[in-house]
Amino acid sequence: MTESRPEAKVRVSHLRLSDFRNHADLALDFAGRSVVLIGQNGVGKTNVLEALSLLAPGRGFRRATLAEMARLGGSGGFSVLAGVEGAFGAVRIGTGAVPGEPGRRILVDGEPQKASERLSDHLRLIWLVPAMDGLFTGAAADRRRFLDRLVLAVDPAHGRRVSAYEQAVASRNRLLEGREADVVWLDALETEIAATGVAVAAARRETVHCLARLIETRPDGDGAFPRAAVQLTGEVDTALDGAAAADVEDWLRADLRAGRSRDRAAGRTLVGPHRSDLSVRHAEKDMPASASSTGEQKALLTGLVLAQAALVTELTGNPPVLLLDEVAAHLDARRRRALVDLIAALGVQAFMTGTDIAPFEGFSNEAEIIAIPDVAAPDSGEF
Ligand SMILES: Nc1ncnc2c1ncn2[C@@H]1O[C@H](COP(=O)(O)OP(=O)(O)OP(=O)(O)O)[C@@H](O)[C@H]1O
């Protein structure tokens, strides 16, 4: 008989959803191991994972508005409360929306918090959801977001860095739309763009370096998940390879100033880390990830997400919690086994979903199976 795996060092022990999506009131207790949520299509399994994803800075993995997440026919608000056990003991963290209030509320042990960054003091999240299946073939913006989420899990200040940068770029774009832009204001914005832009690029670069090194040295589930070779591409990223950050900042500021009429004609800023991309290659086959088969892409992506989890543990000293929506559906039996083994070896708690228990049979030591009831269905025999 296999022994039970030790509990993850950081884990969600309880979750309560009120008026969140289709869940009017759902309370779940977790024993400490990984969790598989089972239920028919549409019962709200992904909604539970989405609720968990709001326990990190940002808008959750669906990037939905607060109004979209509030239960139709409910009060117009919602709440998500979780018990988390971690390095500093047990804490209750939560978030929610109140009708008429802009933005979401953040609570830590009942105390309102000014910044969602405070959630990261207790919980770091990494997720893999079906919407990411086209990550390698899709838009560069999605790969940047994928990378920024990892940087954020390692360094919670990254969120502020990225939004300061994006706001400055948006302000410059608006200013350039006018025929006679205020030059003093443009100078100030370009200084801000250069400073925050190089900070964003440097943080991404550092994380990608660490990730690439970790992928080269870690076990990969006996080859179940092909190794990915990751690299940042973009003018600012290349510049940082050969020069000090201060010099790249000077260069970027000068380029922005010289490129005003170019950018005015284009209607947007054409240089900066918002133009970078994360190049991912299938290392063993030495070909772009985008040229791999659908199954290979899923395996590469899964391996990349597991490497991200290992990196967060290595760099922060605490394992993240993984949210893996419908992950088993795309993996063959060997890869499913390797996935569960790697999750256990990493010492992370993972939340997975499935419509059917079959892919998870044999994992009872590693994962707790929880059925999500179909709240819309009438009780049997009550007709
Ligand atoms: N704001 C909302 N209010 C009420 N119900 C909602 C809201 N948003 C989504 N839903 C409902 O949530 C359900 C979808 O939930 P979810 O995506 O979690 O399903 P699932 O269990 O993961 O299903 P599948 O196995 O098909 O992926 C749908 O029935 C949808 O109508």
UniProtKB/TrEMBL annotation:
UniProt-listed InterPro entries: AAA+_ATPase (IPR003593), DNA-binding_RecF (IPR001238), DNA-binding_RecF_CS (IPR018078), P-loop_NTPase (IPR027417), Rad50/SbcC_AAA (IPR038729), RecF_2 (IPR042174)
Nucleotide-binding in keyword set: yes
Compartments, as annotated in UniProt: Cytoplasm
A single MF term (Gene Ontology): single-stranded DNA binding
Chain residue ranges for the region called Disordered: 263-294
GO biological process, one term: SOS response
One cellular component term from this protein's GO annotations in UniProt: cytoplasm
Pfam families: AAA_23
The entry's keywords: ATP-binding, Cytoplasm, DNA damage, DNA repair, DNA replication, DNA-binding, Nucleotide-binding, SOS response
SUPFAM superfamilies registered for this protein in UniProt: P-loop containing nucleoside triphosphate hydrolases
Domain AAA+ ATPase: 31-373
Binding residues annotated for ATP, in chain numbering: G39, Q40, N41, G42, V43, G44, K45, T46
Domain of life: Bacteria
Bias-annotated ranges (Basic and acidic residues): 274-287
Functional note: The RecF protein is involved in DNA metabolism; it is required for DNA replication and normal SOS inducibility. RecF binds preferentially to single-stranded, linear DNA. It also seems to bind ATP.
Family assignment from sequence similarity: Belongs to the RecF family.
Record-given protein name: DNA replication and repair protein RecF
Organism of provenance: Pleomorphomonas carboxyditropha
Taxonomic lineage: Bacteria, Pseudomonadati, Pseudomonadota, Alphaproteobacteria, Hyphomicrobiales
Gene symbol of the encoding locus: recF
